[in-house]
Design goal:
Blueprint (H helix, E strand, L loop, with lengths): L4 E8 L6 H9 L7 H6 L6 E8 L5 E8 L7 H8 L4 E7 L6 H12 L4 E7 L6 H15 L11 E3 L8 H14 L10 E3 L2 E5 L3 E7 L4 E3 L3 E5 L3 E10 L2 E3 L1 E3 L3 E7 L11 E4 L6 E10 L6 E2 L2 E7 L2 E9 L4 E2 L4 E12 L6 E6 L4 E10 L8 H11 L4 H10 L8 H8 L3 H13 L3 E3 L5 E3 H18 L4 E2 H8 L3 H13 L3 E4 L2 E4 L8 H17 L6 H8 L3 H13 L3 E3 L6 E3 H12 L5 E3 H8 L3 H13 L3 E4 L2 E4 L1
Parallel strand pairs: 1-3, 1-4, 4-5, 5-6
Antiparallel strand pairs: 2-3, 7-16, 8-9, 9-15, 10-14, 11-12, 11-16, 12-13, 12-15, 17-22, 17-24, 18-21, 19-20, 19-23, 20-22, 23-24, 25-26, 27-29, 28-29, 30-31, 32-34, 33-34
């Protein structure tokens, strides 16, 4: 038996355009449950319904609906429902066409990153064929360029009253459900709460869309941001009791250990120790084309999943933001909410009330000690790379501070197992290092720490340093210092006598003739610049034999006058390399290809490629496909 596939689909559209009637015609369920909704004949709060269907391959589909209000006064409730659904049915009445809330709802769906769904022309029985063709043309023009304007997003004419087109709507829903992605196992359990109530004989019940992971009966959970612990007493999906619910399903959770008075819409159920709430995020935000200018430190309403908080927006660059543009910003939230990188949100201005834009979370746990300019450069890189490539950047930004697997998982919104899998290629490539404790550090930071400790030991001379003093002077944490010390002792670069660390041996004094050869070789390499010659070429030029030339090269490397290019035959002088690094420093966050690099340096491909590979190893650049990102 094939597993049941679940998807939650939202409705969207202007007030009184027939969203609730359409859902009722499809499912037999009236989603208007509140007395006020019955009296006024409009949807005020979120409504829920479901239906079962069969996919073309005969597998079972569970389609849940979140019916949202269409009135402008209840847009907050609409956002609480839209934030958790991956697909939408946009409902537009045949007798009215595209209206203000039609436009705002579609803008919200696009800001939230929705990519699937279709459009229904409701109340098709109220117009004649000519009027229906006219409104269809109007809708096609309105949808052009949006995710609902493609070939896989048809426009279906229907009437909930007569049954016209309902079978076609069901067929399109089945197609959308069939295209839904499988539950993402890389992310931990997260269920934003949209309803809280007491059910006689059961106690406290919360409902929501399970965004990721799975939830089981008997499982211990945490309510964020309150931090209250609870236990899952029972589960229901589609009105049926279940032992386990998977991502993508509407789920009712019967909780024990927590009172209904302590719960509310906007809170989130998470696994213990997996995710925490935050009140500061770094994000990429975008303003709609018709939005007013947003000033620095503007106060906005931020809507994410079922949460709504006030936020202060602080831009990383200029003082204001124009309509239709994207910017990096730090948002300080009035209350903590659960967010992870990649989450989408909508921002609305308080007065006059209206949706002005949205954004994507880049970092939900900014480092408090990081300088603003450094954070800006780091965010520019994170915004451009794939999620799997962000892991190395998150480790590297910490410098010589290590980070554990669980902490990295929480920061990235992944399971610990997913972090280990994502990290493995970086460790194999030598970009990241896992210490014996299990903590992670970048190889570049570990190398820099090693150089720093070696420099200390050289300065201390034969007397050496007590281990505790060496660690204190290095400013390194215990894990990193221990790893560095073990490394240089194993490599024979230092020796440990009890608690005293000394440099291993000392280079013999150079004769005047040897010093002259060193000076001549250094000058030859300096003159060559970045067009690094091989050792034999320099030896022939200076009339120095191969064996002696190798010793000269070793001494120049020890003095850090020369830098190895990747082979034992090619080296480059450190001075032109520093000058190139300074020039590239002005391009941080930008990309450069081989042709542009050749033009910048005046080098041929023979010299440019090894030099770029050296820059990659030195963490000055990072290769991404056919280009390099300047770090």
């Amino acid at each position: 038996m094939k597993p049941v596939k679940s998807i939650v689909i939202g409705t969207a559209g202007h007030i009184d355009h027939g969203k609730t009637a359409l859902v009722r015609a499809l499912t037999g369920i009236d989603t208007d449950r509140l007395p006020e909704e019955k009296r006024r004949g409009i949807t005020i709060d979120l409504g829920f319904a479901s239906m079962d269907a069969a996919a073309p391959d005969e597998s079972s589909l569970r389609i849940s609906f979140v019916d949202v209000p269409g009135h402008a006064l209840f847009i907050r409730n609409m956002l609480a429902g839209a934030g958790c659904v991956p697909a939408v049915v946009l409902v537009i009445a045949a007798d009215e066409g595209v209206m203000p809330q039609t436009r705002e709802h579609l803008a919200i769906c696009e800001l939230l990153g929705m990519s699937d769904g279709f459009t229904v022309i409701s109340k098709a029985d109220l117009v004649n064929d000519g009027q229906l063709r006219q409104v269809r043309g109007e809708i096609q023009s309105f949808l052009k360029g949006t995710f609902l304007g493609g070939a896989e997003a048809p426009i279906v004419a229907a009437s909930a009253r007569t049954g016209l087109g309902i079978a076609e709507v069901r067929a399109e829903l089945t197609k959308v459900a069939g295209r839904a992605k499988a539950a993402e196992s890389a992310r931990p359990m997260r269920l934003p709460i949209d309803r809280v109530f007491v059910k006689k004989g059961f106690g406290t019940v919360v409902t929501g869309t399970l965004l990721s992971g799975e939830i089981r009966v008997g499982q211990s959970v945490v309510v964020e941001p309150s931090g209250r612990s609870a236990r899952v007493r029972g589960l229901q999906t589609h009105g049926a009791a279940e032992e386990m619910a998977q991502a993508g399903s509407r789920t009712a959770v019967n909780l024990s250990g927590v009172d209904v008075a302590d719960l509310s819409r906007g809170q989130v159920l998470v696994g213990a120790g997996e995710l925490t709430a935050t009140n500061v995020i770094d994000a990429e935000i975008v303003l709609l084309e018709d939005a007013p200018i947003m000033r620095n430190r503007a106060r906005v309403h931020l809507h994410a999943f079922t949460s709504e908080v006030m936020a202060s927006v602080s831009f990383y660059s200029a003082e204001s933001m124009k309509a239709g543009t994207r910017r990096l910003a730090r948002l300080k939230l009035s209350e903590p909410i659960v967010l992870v990188p990649g989450d989408r949100f909508v921002i609305r201005q308080p007065a006059p009330a209206g949706t002005v834009g949205g954004g994507r979370v880049l970092d939900a746990q900014p480092l408090s000690v990081a300088k603003r300019a450094e954070t800006h450069r780091w965010l520019e890189m994170v915004a451009r790379v794939a999620p799997s490539q962000q892991l190395a950047l998150r480790v590297e930004r910490r410098g010589a501070e290590v980070v554990g697997i669980d902490a990295l998982a929480q920061e990235m919104g992944l399971t610990s197992e997913a972090v280990r899998e994502t990290m493995a290629p970086f460790v194999a490539a030598g970009e990241l290092v896992m210490l014996s404790s299990g903590s992670i550090i970048s190889s570049a930071a570990l190398s820099a720490a090693r150089e720093s400790v070696m420099s200390q030991l050289k300065s201390a001379g034969e007397a050496g340093l007590k281990r505790s003093v060496a660690q204190s002077q290095s400013g390194l944490g215990g894990e990193v210092f221990d790893a560095v010390l073990a490394g240089i002792v194993d490599d024979g670069k230092a020796q440990l006598n009890g608690e005293v660390v000394t440099i291993a041996g000392a280079a013999p004094a150079l004769s005047a003739k040897e010093a002259q050869k060193l000076q001549a070789a250094a000058a030859a390499y300096r003159k060559a610049g970045l067009a690094a010659p091989n050792v034999k070429e320099v030896g022939d030029q200076l009339r120095i034999g191969e064996v002696e030339m190798r010793r000269v090269i070793t001494l120049l490397i020890r003095e850090k006058t020369l830098v190895r290019m990747g082979s034992d035959d090619v080296f480059v002088h450190a001075e032109p390399l520093r000058e190139l690094s300074a020039k590239l420093g002005a391009m941080r966050g930008k990309t450069i290809d081989v042709a542009a690099f050749k033009t910048m340096t005046g080098l041929t491909r023979k010299h440019a490629i090894p030099l770029l590979e050296l820059l990659d190893r030195e963490r000055i650049t990072r290769k991404l496909g056919d280009v390099r990102v300047v770090l």
